Amino acid sequence: MSDFAHRLTRGLTVRYVAVLAIIGALAVGSFLGLARVMMDAESTITVVNASASQKVLVEQVLGLSEKMILLRANSAQAGKVERELQAVLDHLEAIHRGLLQGLPELKRPQPPSERVRGLYFGPEAQLDGELRDFIGHGRGLLVARLGDQAFAADVQALRDAVDGGLLNRIDRLTSLHQQDNLERLQHMFGYHAAVVAVVLFLLVISAAIVFRPMVARIREDLVLRQANEKRLRESEERLWRMLQESPVGVSASRRKDGLVVFANARFCEILRTEPRNVLGRHARDLYVDERQLSTVVADLKAHGEVNDSEVEFSRFDGEPFHALLTVKPSQFEGEAVNLAWIYDISAMKAAEEKLKLTAKVVESASEAVVITNAKNQIEYVNPAFSAITEYSAEEVIGQNPALWRSGRHDGDFYQGMWEGLNTQGRWRGEIWNRRKSGEFYAEWLSIVAIKDDQDAVSHYIAIFSDITHRKEDEERVWRQANFDALTGLPNRALFIDRLNQAIRQSKREGRKFALFFIDLDGFKQVNDSLGHAAGDLLLQQTAKRLVDCVRSSDTVARLAGDEFTCIVQGVQGKEDVGMVAAKILERLAAPFDLEGRSAEVRGSVGVAIYPDDGADGPGLLHVADEAMYRVKRRGKNSFEFAN
To answer: How far is CA 637 from CA 51, 181, 581, in A?
Structure first.
């Protein structure tokens, strides 16, 4: 730091401390004045409250005296009232004395004003004497016996004092205290305002005296800086005409010490800094590490210059970047310098690395990637494509993706695909294709159209994954959730769905359908006598017989145990339904061959017709179930309609 800077810093510090001392002293004085105002305000509030409380205490004394008369027969309660009266009189006497002599809780007790003293002791009103007499008569009640003439006289004296305007004079006393306190506060606030005005005036004077020399010194420093900057601009303008507008970063560093003595705008832009941060800095500080610097220095020593060497520098925000560096020996203002040209190639390096990374990602991706040109000719496929389709890259390059079509989709499907690509620029969905071996497989395909600068499609990128196993798993899970594992028939969940579909279709077409509720008679005896394996076999054969009794468009389901249902569509009336029910009973009555052992069962069938017997699925199922149980109660091996 220069001597001028030392002197300026020292002067500023002294003046700053002086101003702080003055401000502190003035602040303390203002705080003390405000504290006094607050203390006076608190004291005035206490006086007004105490004065107002006298009225309440007087009324309490009169009320307790009346109460003593009423409680003459109850000595225990009368004693309690006397103690209360004693406490009230003591409190009233203490407040009266405190208002005249200064309450003990007041921080700054004030003597009564002339108006207040006139009310206490003046010829027009002698409130002091009245209160003392009132307190005396009250204490007389405590020494006189209840019923004595003295007791009655004291009570009457208390009443006369209240009726004679004692309470009004106490109210007037409170009002006078309020007026005195308001005037006193106005006076104190005026005094404090004057103190604040004086403080502000002194503060302005102190600031003017203290900071005026400081402002003058700063002005001198600015003038000196402006002169130096003018000389610097004149020196820079000589090189500006040659190199400042160059699109390549240019700098010059002295050979003797390596300090940078020139840097053009592009050079500073590349380093993301201002020229003043570069000039006077060692050129070696710009290199990322010593290895980079050593390579450049070795080339300079060996050849005297450096031509298009790829070097890694560091920007001023710490970010490294790649550049092409050329260094030539030269002269600058009579000194030997190294004139350096740098060209930022970090964007090209980043793009190159990004392309490499993208290529690695695409090559290692588990999804197949296919790139075609605008004519839909394949230009690139990744290894995952070959793994999924079994076609090598050599076999498909230049071919149309229609090569592996499965034939499962019609022309409308592909037309919709191309409409989506042409209108939205993308399409995604599920599609079936064929591997090289001829095996069909399902894939989830996403196609995106890539456009050039003229907004014309130049390429299509298709990404797909093999979802064949997922489709098979979904089909297996769906069958497990909707079909009975033993018989292969729809289970209760799928039956309810089919029943709701039948209701919607019949309502839409105005047609009827029949719901059969079938229960096997004698199944438990077969299961108990021949075993569960034989029972399972019987249920499987029952399911087959029921399916044979209806059309392929009808539904046969197993609800639970030996309970089955049938939904028969498009019935005309009860005659058609009765024929189907009779056919079911006939087929169930035939003997069952259970692996060499014969068994016979019968069936009880309840029938409901939509919409005659119910408007919804639960209602139809309920009435069909009731009809089936009526058959069982009637003797089994028959059928009955719900109504």
So the answer is: 108, 111, 11
